[in-house]
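Researcher: I'd like a structural prediction for the single chain below. Treat it as a standalone chain; there are no partners to consider.
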Amino acid sequence: MHKNLKEPHQMEGMMERQTAERPEMEQEHMTDEDVLRYLYLVERRLELLDAGVDWKTEYEAELEAVNQELKGLRGLVEREHERRTKMRPEIIKGIISEIKRKVGEDCEIRSQEVVKNNGSVRHGIVIRRHGAAVCPCIYIDGLLKDIGTGRRNIPSAAAEIADAYRKAGCGRFADVGKSLNKEDILKRVVYRLVNTRMNAGRLAGIPHKEILDLSAAYAVILSNNDEEMVSAIVDYSLCGTYGISEEELDLAARRNTKKNGFVVRTMEEILGIPEGMLFEGYIPQLVFTNTERLHGAAVMLYRECFEEAARRLKSDLYVLPASIHEVIAIPANGVGPDVLRKMVAEVNADEVADEEILSGNVYRYRLGTGRLEIM
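Model: Treating it as a single chain, here is the predicted structure.
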């Protein structure tokens, strides 16, 4: 993961200069230098923790120094987060005012907090043309962050949002909403696999089916091209409006998700090296996703994919939930499930966005039985 470890003396010199320049009194705001320093320290800490066989005894002192400086910066980071959170409503109000000037008065424009996968919350701007049944929600979290740090101003952020709305096709969303019917929905619906416990509140209002600690929800693909995929989660209201039963919905999603296709690649293929050229003792890994590489963990609903891989490896499989987009399978005759669970926990904590975490569990697929179980 993290490579090119710097020698401790280089790091110590930087730390001395930074701490010497830091004023004694409590700062109200983070400067650009503070932000860069904090990001550097976080990255350096990860490098040291990930040193593995490259670990040197002198790194212990460096890691302790990094932890101490991060502890000192944490209060400043928390105050800065609180300050920006308080500013957010006024910034969003200003963005909406600017967008209205750019897209015209025939649109309703409002802010919306959207609860995404695993309870994560994103901030968006909804732009709805009058009479439109469907409209885009353009997420602005990155823009809010840039405004808070001074990299962007409100007019430029509003211009980017308006431009994104125009590129998406102002009227296309209205047209899609008007053209939807039961047959069209059943042709477009696919699975979305999520963690049941982490999405309990969200799942209460939508049709879904459970598989172990996971749940398969349903999404309608409104458009899909090289630049974007626009989809909407199916709720009970939509099913009622179009007279769709849960059985019809599930049969259609199973057919469409499989038709869209899955991809299985070895780690050698992903890294672009010849098969058999990895280090001695390497455990074969197969990465499962779909052709879009988005929400590909739905492959867990298709046991035949695992059966084929298990026959290829002549072994049961341990299935690791890398994210909602992909899962990894390895032969179940080497590393034990306790070690694998620890690996999954570390990856979830350090490398997977909160809203993309699928599970902390490890699963076992049993060759020849079609059975998938939690270990």
